[in-house]
Design a protein that fits this description.
25% strand; alpha/beta; six-stranded mixed sheet; Rossmann fold; 37% helix; 538 residues
Length: 538
């Protein structure tokens, strides 16, 4: 008997069909890749296995885990399975973690609940699994809170919670979305080790075909709630018999048509000079001297009008901190930031309004950047308060509708709430909010990290079009070197708060000079290389 057997699974929420006739099997010690566009039903399939469906959902068919009929099991039985025999890594770490509990409490909680261990033993086991996922005690004590960690570090905590009790089945829903490529390679290697050592089954949900090819023994490709194609990974992705498989493969290596914007001698749009950012940290003792952590250390660079520049580096290297200072959301400890000739440092909110009219941002976590109580129309229209004269209600609605169309969504979506969308769809909403004022500069912090490859290709085309048509400049903060190659002219490589290498994007990635750049390039997933390696080892 297979570890997991899904036969003829049908799922509907209210009158809306979500899944149709899904068949899937997973053996002990096997890795199954589940691939498809945002909204294809990948996550809903996983939530059906976990029995974490909405109240209005109706599921039929067979879902058998280790001999247990999941759809017929009582809730008490499911409570025993979840976290013990079945672990799950959710897509958005900040929404999966409790913001008022320390990471030690959250990892130890499941251990205590399922094993009856005392607090000391549970915390010792929590410490061990956090060490294993790359959060050593010296930098990441159990007393840290989720908000004190970067996006990639929070994702590692979620992985630690899911793997703490060595489950028989681990469901990983985009487990490396928020991770830099070096850490992604480490986490994927960790998951391989867990599968090999503990004979654990792994259901890997991802939009990254290169990651799935590297990891999965077999792959199932979904679209609109149905299985399009399934089979051995390398063969399926190399032969590409189904048109949709070919579409996904082409989108994963898509490069937008764009004109390279060279550096100019004219005054730059953005000028960052010797910027430093220190954060106070806890004293070593009650009467010890004040201590600080230097997140950004003497960074200088410029961005020309209409230019696209990438800022790449490992998680926690200071990229997002630098972005917040550029956006005047945080003040630098030292240094100067000029936008369009105007000094941003030390200005009041009123004084910053003219600059902010021409500067927008796309955040890494789309769900965390939206107020869940407001509808899409109000959320996307938020930047319009910076425009003079203020648009009328009809004009605001028209602008929101156009922004939604620009990012591949429907004007009808403006009457919905953020929780009604998938992770990728929410990221598109945040991009719509950024482009609605047609700004001169967009700071994009991992703008396509949550998007499937097809939508990512559309969004990159949109960015390129706005760049060419309206002269919008971009600072792309990303760990995805494929995205950096596709959409930027120049790249800055950041490591431990410093810029260690910069230059033309292709030149830096083809011939990296610094150790940090070489590590990023070596760890970056590549679909063609992954398929070739799989076929050679078959």
């Amino acid at each position: 008997m297979s570890l997991l057997e899904i036969e003829n699974l049908e799922l509907a929420i209210g009158d809306t069909p979500i899944l149709r006739d899904i068949d899937l099997t997973l053996e002990t010690g096997e890795v199954m890749g589940l691939v498809g566009e945002s909204g294809s039903g990948k996550s809903m399939t996983a939530l059906t296995v976990m029995r974490l469906l909405p109240h209005a959902a109706r599921a039929s068919g067979r879902v058998i885990f280790d001999g247990i009929d999941i759809l017929a099991a009582p809730e008490d039985a499911m409570n025993s399975l979840r976290g013990d025999d079945i672990g799950m890594v959710f897509q958005e770490p900040m929404t999966a973690l409790n913001p008022v509990k320390t990471i030690g409490e959250q990892v130890a909680e499941g251990i205590r609940w399922h094993t009856g261990a005392n607090r000391a033993d549970a915390e010792a086991r929590a410490r061990a699994i956090l060490d294993r996922v790359g959060l050593p005690e010296k930098q990441f004590p159990l007393t840290r809170y989720p908000h004190e960690l970067s996006g990639g570090q929070r994702q590692r905590v979620v992985i630690a919670i899911a793997c703490a009790l060595k489950p028989k089945l681990l469901i990983a829903d985009e487990p490396t979305t928020a991770l830099d490529v070096v850490l992604q390679a480490q986490i994927l290697e960790l998951l391989r080790d867990l599968v090999r050592e503990d004979r654990m089954g792994l259901l890997l949900i991802s939009h990254d075909l290169a990651v799935v090819t590297d990891m999965a023994d077999r792959v199932t490709i979904m679209r609109h709630g149905e299985v399009m194609e399934a089979g051995e990974t390398a063969r399926t992705l190399s032969e590409q018999k189904h048109p949709y498989t070919r579409q996904l493969a082409a989108a994963s290596v898509h490069v937008p048509e764009r004109r390279v914007q060279a550096e100019t001698e004219a005054e730059p749009l953005l000028q960052v000079t010797d910027v430093v950012k220190d954060y106070s940290i806890r004293r070593a003792s009650l009467f010890g001297p004040p201590r600080h952590f230097r997140a950004v250390d003497g960074v200088s660079f410029s961005l020309a009008k209409g230019q696209s520049k990438a800022l790449v580096g490992r998680s926690g290297c200071g990229k997002s901190t630098l972005a917040r200072m550029i956006l005047a959301l945080d003040r630098p400890t030292e240094g100067s930031i000029l936008f369009d000739g105007t000094e941003l440092t030390g200005k009041t909110e009123t004084e910053l309004k003219p600059s902010r009219r021409n500067m927008q941002v796309v955040f890494q976590d789309p769900y965390g950047s939206f107020n869940p109580r407001h509808k899409v129309e109000r959320l996307v229209a938020e930047p319009l308060h910076l425009i003079d004269p203020q648009p009328t209600s009809a004009e605001r609605r028209e602008r929101v509708a156009q922004a939604l169309v620009d990012v591949g969504m429907s004007p009808a979506d403006m009457d919905k709430y953020p929780h009604e969308f998938s992770g990728g769809q929410r990221q598109r909403l945040s991009i719509a909010r950024a482009v609605i004022t047609r700004p001169r500069l967009i700071v994009a912090d991992e703008p396509v990290s949550a998007l499937d490859v097809s939508i990512r290709a559309q969004i990159l085309d949109l960015f390129a079009d706005l760049n060419q048509r309206l002269g919008v400049a971009y600072l792309f903060i990303t760990h995805d070197l494929t995205v950096a190659r596709a959409i930027t002219d120049h790249v800055l490589v950041m490591h431990e708060g410093r810029i260690v290498e910069e230059g033309e994007t292709d030149q830096v990635f083809d011939h990296p000079q610094s150790n940090a750049a070489r590590a990023l390039v070596d760890a970056a997933p590549d679909l063609e290389r992954a398929i070739s390696r799989r076929l050679a080892n078959a």
